[in-house]
Amino acid sequence: MVKEIERSGLPVVHVCTVTPISMTVGANRIVPAIAIPHPLGNPSLPKEEEKALRRKIVEKALKALTTEVTGQTVFKD
Amino acid sequence: MKLELGKLTIRDIRFSEESKISEGILYVSKEDLRRVALTEEKIKSADFDIARPGESVRITPVKDVVEPRVKTEGPGGIFPGFIAGVDTVGSGKTLALKGMAVVTTGPIVNFQEGVIDMSGPGADYTPFSKLLNLCVICEPVDNCEKHQYESALRMAGLKIASFVAGLGKDIAPEETETFETPDLLTGMKAFPELPRVAYVQMLQSQGLLHDTYVYGVDAKKILPTVLYPTESMDGAILSGNCVSACDKNPTYIHENNPIVEDLFKQHGKTINFVAHVITNENVFLADKERSSNQTAKLCKMLGLDAVIISEEGFGNPDTDLIMNCKKIEAEGIKTVIVTDEYAGRDGKSQSLADADKAADALVTAGNANQLVRLPKLDKVIGTMDYISKIAGSSDKALQSDGSIEVEIQVITGATSEVGFHTLSAR
Amino acid sequence: MSKLRVVHYINQFFAQIGGEEKADYPIELREGTPVGPGLAFTQAFGEDAEIVGTIICGDSYFNENIEETTKKVVEMVKGLKPDVVIFGPAFNAGRYGFACGTCAAAVHDELELPVVTGMYPENPGVDTAKDKAYVVVTKNSAADMRHAVKVMAPLALKLARHEHVGASCEEGYINQGIRVNFFEKKRGSERAVEMLLKKIAGKPYETEYPMPSFDRVEPMPAVKDLAHAKIALVTSGGICPKGNPDHIESSNATKFGEYSIEGVTDLTEETFETAHGGYDPSYANEDPDRVLPVDIMRDLEKEGVIGKLHELFYTTVGNGTAVASAKKYGAEIGKRLLSAGVNAVILTST
Question: pTM of the prediction?
Answer without folding.
Answer: 0.75
